[in-house]
Amino acid sequence: MVTLTSPSPVVGVIGGGQLGRMLGEAAGPLGVETVVSDPTADPPAAPVTRDQLQGAFDDPEVVEALAARADVLTYEIELADPDLLEQASEKVGVPVHPSPATLRFIQDKLVQKRRLKDAGIPVPAFKGIDSPDDLRDALDDLGAPAMVKARRGGYDGRGNAPLEDPADAEALFEELGGEVMAEATISFERELSVIGVKGAEGIRTFPVTETIHQEEILRETISPARTDERTRERAQQVARDVLEVMDGRGVYGIELFEVGEEDSESTETNREGSSGSILVNEIAPRPHNSGHWTIEGALTSQFEQHLRAVLGWPLGATDRRAPTALANVLGDVSTTRPAELRGVESVLSRSGTSLHWYGKREVRPLRKMGHLTRATTDSSDDPDDLLEDVRSARDALTFES
Distance (Å, rounded) from C-alpha 313 to C-alpha 197? Predict the structure, then answer.
């Protein structure tokens, strides 16, 4: 039974970045309060949360203090420490969702891939790497170029690098910190994403979204994905299989590749023992950039779903309202400087276009500073036209003087 009282239920969030900010924005209408912990003094989430505890993600006193303030703990960043979350949960008696065990294996890309493979979920062929010699051997096994990934800490393309020449193996191994994995390079048709959610009474998935990357940074999304219905159904099924492997309630961002038959030899097999047209790339145990479109484009946003899930409340509907396109606003500067976004009036004057500003004080090259969403009220609108429209709105913005 859900009963709203005063004081309101409190969700403690490790991390006060833009995801923490959007969780805080979604919490208000539900009568929920959020308290965040973050190393910075005035993080993006601060204006829309009840309070902030300043301290490092691995500071046990901060994590325990956050647990003492909350009815449930969650996290918006994989830098959260699963050991400290477990300790604080046991000491204070507050649950953590998704579970620290899930965070622990997600944090290590090699462990993540092995767990998925063992569950029969289709993933690109991969190898664990312990030395430069292993990396050279991987080129023979996986083909060149192979994608080499730092097992921990990489995001937005950081920590990933292609390797084609065996002579470069040692330098790349050292550059990525010596704890890496190698993955077959996939010639995919397109990249897709499914936002899934595990609640107290089951799982749900949002519609399949197409994600468009450049330099391994997400630039735009379009929902529905511009692929056939069979592929969408397969992506939904793979996402549901992934959710079965995850432990703990909450939202999960599931990044996928749609591949052609010619790439079947570069994949691990699915539960039926044959290569599928969908491969899992990576999983985030939290709301994800590829799901931001749900704020305007779905009946329930991914952020509201995450709050409902971690609190054990009934989940909302995941239906898409209508075709929706999104464009990230990235730093278009060459050096770090105070953030001052120009051209905002051109966006605000566009009907159906929504601006989300993350409130970051400094802009850096390619740093995510906000996003634009273009949602239509007509389900027959062409997704290509929506995408071009939101790109045009984004291109009118700049941090340059």
Answer: 12
Backbone angles phi, psi at 253, to 5 degrees: -90, 120
Peptide bond into 98 cis (omega under 30): yes
Under CATH, which number does the domain 125-184 receive?
3.30.1490.20
Are 10-96 and 188-395 in the same CATH fold?
no
Exposed/middle/buried for residue 364 (C-beta within 10 Å: 0-12, 13-18, 19+): middle
Q: Return the CATH fold of 10-96.
A: Rossmann fold (3.40.50)
Whether pTM exceeds 0.90: yes
pLDDT in tens, 116-145: 999 999 999 999 999 999 999 999 999 999
Alpha-carbon distance of 360 to 339, in angstroms, equals 7
Nearest to 149 by CA among 128, 166, 122: 128
Domain ranges (residues) in the chain: 10-96, 125-184, 188-395
**What DSSP letter does each residue of 222-261 carry, written as one string?**
EES-SS-HHHHHHHHHHHHHHHHH--SSEEEEEEEEEE-G
Predicted confidence (pLDDT) per residue in 279-308, tens digit: 999 999 999 999 999 999 999 999 999 999
Specify the CATH superfamily of domain 188-395.
Answer: ATP-grasp fold, B domain (3.30.470.20)
CA–CA gap between residue 142 and residue 166 (Å, rounded): 13
- Chain center to CA of 306: 13
Q: Which amino acid is at 66?
A: L
Q: For 94-133, give the DSSP string.
A: --BSS-HHHHHHHHSHHHHHHHHHHTT---B-EEEE-SHH
